[in-house]
Design brief:
Helix content is 71%, strand content 0%. The protein is mostly helical. It folds into three domains: 1-39; 48-98; 101-131, no CATH class. Helix 3 (41-69) runs antiparallel to helix 4 (75-94). The longest helix is centred in the first third of the chain and has 29 residues, at 11-39. It starts with a helix and ends in a 15-residue tail after the last helix.
Length: 143
């Protein structure tokens, strides 16, 4: 935007450019979100649940602080609640998102680029030959 400011001297044109950039950015965000929501609904659901958890914990902390301000709860009791809420926040931060892919084969067939190249029979054959291997941490995969 700084480069545009140096090139364009007309304020009216600058405002129109800024507005257009803002609209395009908003449009791009919506497209990305819709694409993610369509192709990875499990991920969106997990993120929304985690975000909701943080929102609820923060609202509860604010409620406890309001109760302290209004003298409705004593400090020792409030510290207990705030400590428990901080533990819940830590748990949310440390836990990985719980994403449940209900039918991995279906998801693969529907959303993978390879599904556009191969027929359903070929993909079924490919899925039968998949091997799932679990590796331990720090285990050498390729040497």
């Amino acid at each position: 935007m700084q480069l545009v400011n140096q090139i364009v001297q007309n304020e009216e044109i600058l405002e129109r450019i800024k507005k257009e950039i803002k609209n395009e950015l908003k449009h791009a965000k919506n497209l990305l979100y819709n694409e993610l929501e369509e192709n990875f609904p499990e991920v969106i659901k997990a993120v929304q649940h985690k975000r909701g958890g943080f929102y609820l914990i923060n609202r509860m902390k604010a409620f406890v602080n309001e109760m302290i301000e209004h003298g409705q709860i004593d400090f020792k009791e409030a510290n207990f609640f705030l400590h428990e809420l901080n533990k819940e926040t830590r748990n949310l931060e440390l836990n990985k998102l719980k994403i449940d892919f209900t039918d991995a084969d279906f998801d693969f067939k529907e959303h993978c680029e390879i599904a556009k190249i191969f027929s359903n029979e070929e993909i079924d054959k490919l899925l039968l030959n998949f091997k799932e291997v679990t590796f331990n941490k720090n285990e050498v995969i390729i040497k």
